[in-house]
Amino acid sequence: MAAAPKVEIAAQGAKSPRTLEFLKSGPKNLLINGKWVPAKSGKTFESINPANEEVLALVAEGGKEDIDEAVKAARAAFEEGPWSKLRPHDRTKYLLKVADLIERNREELAELSSLDNGAPIMGGQGLVTAANELFTYFAGWPTKIYGETSPSAPDMFNYTLREPIGVCGQIIPWNGPLMSASNKLAHALSTGNTVVLKPAEQACLVVLRLGELLMEAGIPEGVVNIVPGFGPVAGAALSNHPDVDKVAFTGSTTTGKEILKASVATLKHVSLELGGKSPHIIFADSDLEGALNYAAMGIFGNTGQACIAGSRIFVQEKVHDQFVEGLVNKAKQHKLGAQFEAGTTMGPVVSKVQHQRVLGYINAGKQEGAHTAIGGGPGPQPRGFFVQPTVFTGVRNDMKIAREEIFGPVAAVLPFKDENDAVFQGNDTTYGLAAGIWTRDISRAHKVARKLKAGMVWINCYMVLDFAMPFGGYKQSGQGREFSNHSIDMYTQVKSVFVKL
Ligand code: NAI
Ligand code: MG
User: Fold this and answer.
1) What pLDDT band is residue 378 in, cutting at 50, 70 and 90?
2) In Å, how far from its chain's centre is CA 140?
3) Is 472 close to ligand 1, i.e. is its CB under 6 Å away?
4) Residues of 127-157 as b/e, b for ≥16 C-beta within 10 angstroms?
5) Whose Cα sits closest to atom 36 in ligand 1?
6) Going by CA atoms, what residue is nearest to atom 21 of ligand 1?
7) With bands split at pLDDT 50, 70 and 90, how would you rate the model's confidence at 2?
8) What is the model's pLDDT at position 275?
9) Alpha-helical segments (H) within 140-249
10) 229 Cβ below 6 A of ligand 1
11) Is there a catalytic annotation at residue 273?
12) Which ligand is nearest to the CA of 200?
């Protein structure tokens, strides 16, 4: 038996008494068929606060048998109802209720979210806002998912129905768990599907709290099941499950490929939101101050743990040195610290594994001959997985730090000559998630936007999200688009009905 976690120490600085209450009421169980149950194996794992390496709570470790149970529950809730058979108006009401509960539990959710993955409390707050807006946005969809009538022979009446796909397995990462979970769930629920959600083992506490709110909102039993557990066990069981109709995944490209392979046996629908190595291109004629602010936010925000991080910063030769000086200053202004420490602007990376991984990339950069303009090592803290915000210059696009997703606060700055060079280097990557362009030349901005092979392009801004705009990747950054009307296609299927008159 593992010892009970010392919650007050692990969650030091949390203000909401309900945060401590939630953590102390552990071990946290699995949500299956509307009930909170331990794992069938009886196993639990530790949820760690990455800022101090203390155990926040023990979490039931879902395995294959638990995934089986959860899929059974989701299947029954889908086939026998009520979810897929509800009036669309009623689905809207449920989703609005969830959005409202998220807002009403703002403080606790923000704190849990920050404790889970180490983000400063401001980051946690932002995710609560996003979660609320996701449920609100998708609450609008159920009544707007239309079929079509099509022109046909005089003795025929042909129409289409857009129907839910069925049981959706959803697997999410740890870099913004409240937003990822809300995003995936809102998509599936608005379209009438049922869900088995597997949060990431590194950060699942806030997702389990969200599960409690879904139950409080009256979402019928079996419609949403949440099974934390490890990727190769619970994740693999879900993505291989013969009775799962669709798998939606966000995470690394490597695991995304595994998910796609696992879908083959039963030809599951698959949508993938994967990694990136996004180019952020700054032309000499741009608003340099604006570009600096966004470039710094684009790589240091969330400690660089963002799929859309602008991790390759291309700067036109003429302003290169001036820009690097500015970026180094931005890095200097960051204050590394724990979630609730006054003045903290950058938290740790999520885990020991990620800490070693990111430091490994930093060493690779040094070995390949990139120049460390600032940072380049672990944070000064005696505990916690801190990494100094790091800027590499003299980077070439063939270096490891320019090719692979680092997922840490590590900027690679690369000079470029002209528009063609920027486009060529920007596209010289296996990824294609996002790109940024800074210039005052309006035609150039739009021309370059067309030439960049990326799912999202930001002009004179970066990382702006709008749930009414599609989100997803080109090339090895994914398949399918989340948010917007495009996501509705991904969670529904079309039936053609032919009627002889
Ligand atoms: P991962 O992609 O392996 O994990 C993401 C989710 O997939 C977790 O819930 C995990 O339990 C699950 N998973 C892992 N193996 C699985 C399998 N075989 N079958 C089914 N599910 C599985 O990412 P990880 O290991 O946490 O991070 C490694 C790297 O991945 C990071 O350094 C970063 O580069 C990238 N990453 C990218 C993200 C993005 O949003 N683009 C998010 C998280 C990680
Ligand atoms: Mg954690």
Assistant:
1) very high
2) 22
3) no
4) bbebbbbbbbbbbebbeebeeeeeeeeeeee
5) 252
6) 235
7) low
8) 96
9) 177-190, 205-216, 236-240
10) no
11) yes
12) 1
Give yes or no: 307 in active site.
Answer: yes
Q: Determine if ligand 1 sits within 6 Å of the CB of residue 478.
A: no
User: Cβ contacts of residue 58 below 8 Å, gap of 6+?
Assistant: 2, 5, 26, 27, 28, 44, 45, 46, 47
106-117 vs 88-104: helix crossing angle, rounded to 10: 80
Cα(91)–Cα(189) distance, rounded to whole angstroms?
8
Residue indicated by tokens 């979630």: 339
Report residue 155's pLDDT band, with 50, 70 and 90 as the boundaries: very high
- For residues 57 and 7, the answer to whether their CB atoms sit within 8 Å is yes
> Which CA distances in Å does 236 have to 192, 239, 259?
24, 5, 8
Inter-axis angle of helices 17-24 and 205-216, to 10 degrees? 100
Atom of ligand 1 nearest to the CA of 200: 9
Alpha carbons 312 and 411: distance in angstroms, whole number: 6
Token digits of residue 106: 């703002």
Cβ atoms of 245 and 269 within 8 Å: the answer is yes
State mean pLDDT over 460-488. Answer: 98
Q: Which of 301, 245, 228, 318 is nearest to 38 (CA)?
A: 228
- Evaluate: CB of 171 within 6 angstroms of ligand 1: yes
Sheet holding 492-500, edge to edge: 149-150, 156-164, 492-500
Mean pLDDT value of segment 211-231: 98
Instruction: Give the residue, out of 45, 255, 362, with the most ligand 1 atoms within 8 A of its beta carbon, to mutate for a pocket test.
Output: 255
Is the pTM for the entire model greater than 0.85?
Answer: yes
Q: What are phi and psi of 81, to 5 degrees?
A: 90, -175
**CA-closest candidate to residue 19, choices 94, 110, 101, 85:** 110
Selecting among 133, 307, 404, 482, the annotated active-site residue is: 307
Q: Where are the alpha helices (DSSP H) in 105-227?
A: 106-117, 121-139, 177-190, 205-216
List, for residues 260-275, the tens digit of each pLDDT value.
999 999 999 999 999 9
Tokens of 440: 């005052």
Q: How far is CA 178 from the centre of its chain?
A: 9
User: CA 421 to CA 264: how far, in whole Å?
Assistant: 40
